[in-house]
């Protein structure tokens, strides 16, 4: 019976990921939808594995006898997930220790780490309290206003704790790499993260300054892995730059915010989003409801 449950959850997880596709909706709707479908399959797998372990390999569930195969599979899945988490956390910790060996400098009253690279680069590196890393080339190539736009973008990553959140999302990406569209959804979350930071910076400086800074320093090389890094100038895939520039230019349209509020439903949308989040959570906990039926 446990094996049937596992196969059913696996089929549901596969179906959820398979049906996802990019949309032209507002930022909030794209973020909520992508994040929900990205997280729900692993949550279902986790709760199913935990439920099977709690019930054990013996006994009966409804009218069917349980066996060791599903029990071993559940332990194996959770063990593999823990292994990937420890590996990822260890890699991030070593990277953070390396970053903390870089020389520090004061920039607009904030401490930054100077990275020796021949290209303009800035990023938040770390977990909950990341380090701001900047190359001297970037400081030399940007004027004061453009530099303020870049720093505002990086401050947005700090305020939203993007490095910490994407450490966990990166772990989910690794343990569900075998599910369809995992990489496409990961890239969508990355671009939405950058769009949010761009908008935050544009509200505090100027959208044109942020767009111009992007065009001046954009490149396709990565100094650090994306799981622990939120970099202003890293652009991959190729269309991400166009999305960010278009979004910044749209902010200049006076009525855009009103149109977005109407499209997203304003307060009604956020209320529906909260209800939807609770519904997804209840669905993810559904496998645990099977525990009382085990005897």
Folded structure, characterized:
With 295 residues, the chain is α+β, with helices and mostly antiparallel strands. It has one domain. The chain is built from 11 helices and 7 strands. The chain has helices at residues 2-18, 27-55, 68-99, 136-141, 144-159, 162-175, 182-204, 207-217, 240-251, 256-264, 266-284; strands spanning 60-61, 64-65, 104-107, 110-115, 122-125, 131-135, 229-231. The strands form 2 sheets. A 5-stranded mixed sheet has the order 3-4-6-5-7. The longest helix is centred in the first third of the chain and has 32 residues, at 68-99. The radius of gyration is 22 Å and the shape is elongated. The two termini are 12 Å apart.
Question: Quick gist of this model?
Answer:
The protein is α+β, with helices and mostly antiparallel strands. It has one domain (2-293). The protein contains eleven helices and seven strands.
């Amino acid at each position: 019976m446990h094996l049937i449950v596992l196969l059913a959850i696996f089929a549901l997880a596969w179906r959820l990921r398979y049906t996802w596709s990019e949309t032209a909706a507002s930022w909030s709707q794209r973020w909520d939808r992508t994040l929900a479908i990205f997280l729900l399959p692993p949550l279902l797998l986790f709760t199913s594995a935990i439920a099977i372990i709690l019930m054990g390999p013996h006994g009966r569930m409804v009218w069917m006898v349980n066996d060791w195969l599903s029990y071993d599979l559940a332990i194996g899945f959770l063990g593999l997930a823990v292994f990937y988490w420890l590996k990822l956390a260890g890699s991030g910790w070593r990277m953070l220790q390396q970053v903390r060996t870089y020389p520090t400098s004061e920039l607009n009253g904030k401490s930054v780490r100077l990275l020796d690279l021949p290209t303009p680069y800035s990023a938040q590196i770390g977990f909950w309290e990341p380090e701001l890393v900047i190359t001297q080339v970037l400081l030399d190539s940007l004027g004061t206003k453009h530099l303020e736009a870049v720093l505002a973008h990086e401050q947005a990553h700090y305020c939203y704790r993007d490095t910490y959140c994407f450490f966990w999302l990166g772990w989910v990406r690794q343990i569900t790499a075998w599910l369809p569209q995992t990489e496409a959804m990961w890239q969508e979350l990355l671009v939405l993260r950058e769009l949010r930071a761009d908008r935050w910076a544009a509200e505090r400086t100027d959208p044109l300054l942020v767009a111009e800074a992007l065009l001046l320093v954009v490149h396709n090389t990565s100094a650090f892995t994306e799981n622990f890094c939120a970099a202003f100038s890293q652009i991959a895939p190729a269309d991400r730059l166009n999305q960010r520039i278009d979004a910044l230019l749209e902010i200049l349209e006076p009525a855009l915010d009103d149109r977005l509020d109407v499209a997203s439903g304003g307060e009604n949308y956020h209320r529906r989003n909260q209800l939807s989040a609770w519904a997804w959570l209840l669905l993810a906990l559904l496998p645990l409801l099977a525990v009382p039926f085990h005897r």
